[in-house]
Amino acid sequence: MATAPAILGTLALDRRGALPLQAQLYRTLREAVLSGRLAPGTRLPASRVLAGDLRIARNTVVAVFEQLVNEGYFESRVGSGTRVATIRPETLLYARPSSRVETPGPRPVLSRRGEALARVRRATSGADIRAFQVGLPAIDAFPIETWARLLARRARTPTKGSLGYSYAAGHPALREAIASYLGAARGVVCRPTQVIVVAGAQAALDLACRMLLDPGDAAWIEEPGYLGARGALLAADARPIPVPIDGEGLDVAAGARLAPDAKVAYASPSHQMPLGVTMSLSRRLALIDWAARSGAWILEDDYDSEFRYDGRPLSAMQGIDASGRVIYVGGFSKTVFAALRVGYLVVPEVLVDAFATGMRHTGHSAAVVVQAALADFIAEGHFAAHVRRMRTLYERRQARLLRAAERHLAGLLAVTPSQAGMHVVGRLPRGADDVAVAETALRAGISVRPLSVHHLGSRREHGLLLGYAGVPEREIDRGVERLADAIAGAVDGARRRG
Predict the structure, then answer these.
(1) Alpha carbon distance 475, 452 (integer Å)
(2) Residue 261: which residues within 8 A CB-CB, separation 6 or more?
(3) Which of 409, 439, 445, 407 has its CA nearest to residue 427?
(4) Same fold, 21-95 and 387-497
(5) b/e per residue, 245-277, with b = 16+ CB within 10 A?
(6) How far does Cα 436 stand from its chain's mean position?
(7) Which of 308, 239, 303 is nearest to 267 (CA)?
(8) Would you write out the chain's pLDDT as a tens digit for each of its 498 residues?
(9) Fold classified for 21-95
């Protein structure tokens, strides 16, 4: 005997809602199946009947039934209408949506590398906080209309190569533009074929560490140093060896004592992150000599090199390396805008094929249409003009920050001027906890980075990194005043607890 169709009296559609009626009906019927309200084998009303009950077009009901049939929730048989598919009860148990609030379970088990990476915290601010976030360029001064025009032009007229897998090592026009720019502006000696384009400087470091290091290999890292480099080494399961920084940059002799067998040395010689020290020529030559003798590789991170306010930017260490041991790393997040996510490596000829092949297995490729637009941005002179404008703007913003610090931070934070870059370093009074100060400042809407987190060893300096490049000048004075209140409150609270 044929079963009567189900009476779907609980179905209700919101005609004023933002979701179309067809989508509402689909979701309601699907959830009824998953929750068990419509049991397996239940016969559905005819599409004409259901459409009349709901006062909607029959075509809407037919389209929903067809979709649910295609997805396996309904079955349609000639002569017997549409029924709920026979889904095993245990399948419904796992598929059923739930409104319960899940209680936190045990902590997920991560790999040793995953645990180490999770402890490297690189940011302490939200997206809406401006003063004084480190590494944020002047978005308000970027020529967005020019960029939009170039990007739209490339998107409208893509080449065959840009729609496929042809450009594993990067768009040819961008590799050509980068090689030309680096040769003229940074003294890098390379051919376009040596440029490997990746999804940001962090991706460049990650790829280099994966390609050059085995688990447990020792690698020098500056102390204090760049958190991104530490993260890349940990992701490769390497063994970071903190090598001290002094007034001449990385102490090569100390590194040779601490880990003479290191396979990689990471350095930011033009503008050391976070202290801003420039590596002396004698140290650069010593580092190159050590790498040549030991068969190690040097990762030269040209951090903030374009923004030097006292004379021309210094030439890259790669340009004086006759032994072919330097891998040059750069990116456009600081010079263009942070969300661009395009970086590059300049690798010795012997590594080109291996790195280009490795790119295919890492997911580090940057969007080709963005690469093409960036190539135009550089080749047409917009990039060089923008960097020149930003150099002047950042120098002015740093001066404004220093004047405000003199007025409001005396006795609380000793801020040191910088001849380059996008941030300055301030030292806190003895005994102050920079992490606690940063947390207090964050609650007041100010983003500063503790200097101590850049240390890997047990001996740590306590201070704050204050980014100024991305802060409009009208916000600098107000931000410094709020920072002064936050520091004073954190220091007073620590004294009372002590």
Answers:
(1) 26
(2) 218, 294
(3) 409
(4) no
(5) beebbbbbebbbebbeebbbbbbbbbbbbbbbb
(6) 25
(7) 303
(8) 456 666 676 677 888 777 888 888 888 888 888 877 888 888 888 888 888 888 889 998 899 988 888 878 888 877 778 888 876 544 544 455 544 445 555 556 778 777 777 777 665 444 555 789 998 899 999 999 999 999 999 999 887 767 766 688 999 999 999 999 999 989 999 999 999 999 999 999 999 999 999 999 999 999 999 999 999 999 999 999 999 999 999 999 999 999 999 999 999 999 999 999 999 999 999 999 999 999 999 999 988 778 888 766 678 999 999 999 999 999 999 999 988 999 999 999 999 999 999 888 887 888 999 999 999 999 999 999 999 999 999 999 999 999 999 999 999 999 999 998 999 999 999 888 999 999 999 988 899 999 999 999 888 889 999 999 999 998 999 999 999 999 998 777 666 665
(9) Arc Repressor Mutant, subunit A (1.10.10)
Residue type present at position 365: S
Residues 6 or more apart from 251 whose CB is under 8 A from it? 243, 244, 245, 283
Q: Which CATH architecture has domain 387-497?
A: Alpha-Beta Complex (3.90)
- Residue spans of the domains in the chain: they are 21-95, 142-380, 387-497
AA identity, residue 401: L
Report the largest interatomic distance among the alpha carbons of the chain, rounded to a whole angstrom.
96
Closest CA to 98 of 152, 35, 142, 5: 35
Quickly tell me which residue has 């998953």 as its tokens.
Answer: 34
Beta bridge partners of 326: 298
- Both tokens assigned to 238: 């390497």
Q: Torsions phi, psi of 403, nearest 5?
A: -65, -40
User: Is the pTM higher than 0.85?
Assistant: no
Check if CATH label 1.10.510.10 holds for domain 142-380: no
Q: Where are the alpha helices (DSSP H) in 424-467?
A: 434-443
Q: Which residue has the tokens 């050391």?
A: 272
> Do 471 and 131 meet the contact criterion of CB atoms below 8 Å apart?
yes
